[in-house]
Amino acid sequence: MVSLSQPKLPVIHMADLNPGTESWISTSQKVTQALEKYGCFVAVYERVSQQLKKEVLDSLRTPFDLPTDTKINNTSDKPFHGYMRPVPTRPLYQSLGIEHATSLDDVQRFTNLMWPSGNHHFSNTMHSYATLVTELENAVRQMVFQSYGVEKYYESFNESMNYLFKVMKYSAPKPDQTNLGVAVHTDKSFITVLGQINEVNGLEVEIEDGKWITFEFLPLSFVVLATDPLMAWSNGRVKSPRHRVIMNGQEDRYSIVLFSYKKGIIQTPEEIVDQEHPLRFKPFDHYKFLDFVSKDENYLDEKAIKLFCGV
Ligand SMILES: O=C(O)CCC(=O)C(=O)O
Ligand SMILES: [Fe+2]
């Protein structure tokens, strides 16, 4: 019997997060290469322990069991940031957004909307998780900036980042339902760090035209995805991968996803623009881009960024 092995996403161990060490430099090269080739990779990141992941899973199931009238209190002035309920075109998916989850006060504000009498365990668990996963996002971003020789922009960029954590539930499809969890799209954040929190697979990434692979759950791992804004910032070097969620089987799936956003303008560093690599995207305001995308379902793929700020 011929066994065809399924291609897998590159797996990178994010063990040493001290900038400048030899292992940091070699990890930076792997990270940037993976983002250029596939637009994503699997990050093994042991700072988030199995125990913490288990507590996050136990915690994040709970708000979804609340009545819809409670969940809709999770609102935001930014698109896609508040409660997204199941809709006919996307019946399996719902999500809640926790903005600025690295601040315990902000997590508590979310918690108090869901449980007016408080829920310290939820707040503390989400806050610990958010802090550690944000460190992973920061390391990846710093590595990419360093690989392109533009680390000098990292600190100022860092000062203007917002971190949105979205907790997502995908219900197992009933026999007469579609198994599409989330339709094909590219991400509009700057970097996405996705934690699949229970062992139900479903995330699929297009690594080449028409070639889709399934992310298979690995303990202590996260999927880091590049996005349209990062692709534009890198002048097209980094790929923004199309991805989707397809549900199989009888179990609900939970994920918790960090989306980083930059307040203000994202601009390709002049150092990575030259005659051979002319500027491909004009400077653009990140949240205005998000508003633009939210106006039309058709903009959920990669053409939106070209329409918005392509040269
Ligand atoms: O839940 C997942 O695995 C993917 C979610 C996703 O792609 C998104 O929210 O942009
Ligand atoms: Fe996505």
Automatic annotation (TrEMBL):
UniProt cross-references to InterPro entries, sorted A to Z: DIOX_N, IPNS-like_FE2OG_OXY, IPNS-like_sf, Iron_ascorbate_oxido_reductase, Oxoglu/Fe-dep_dioxygenase_dom
Keyword Metal-binding: yes
Claim: Oxidoreductase is one of the keywords in the record: yes
PROSITE patterns: FE2OG_OXY
Keyword annotations from UniProtKB, A to Z: Dioxygenase, Iron, Metal-binding, Oxidoreductase
GO molecular function, one term: oxidoreductase activity, acting on paired donors, with incorporation or reduction of molecular oxygen
UniProt-listed Pfam families: 2OG-FeII_Oxy, DIOX_N
Domain Fe2OG dioxygenase: 160-262
Function summary: Probable 2-oxoglutarate-dependent dioxygenase that may be involved in glucosinolates biosynthesis. May play a role in the production of aliphatic glucosinolates.
Family note: Belongs to the iron/ascorbate-dependent oxidoreductase family.
Name of this protein: Non-heme dioxygenase N-terminal domain-containing protein
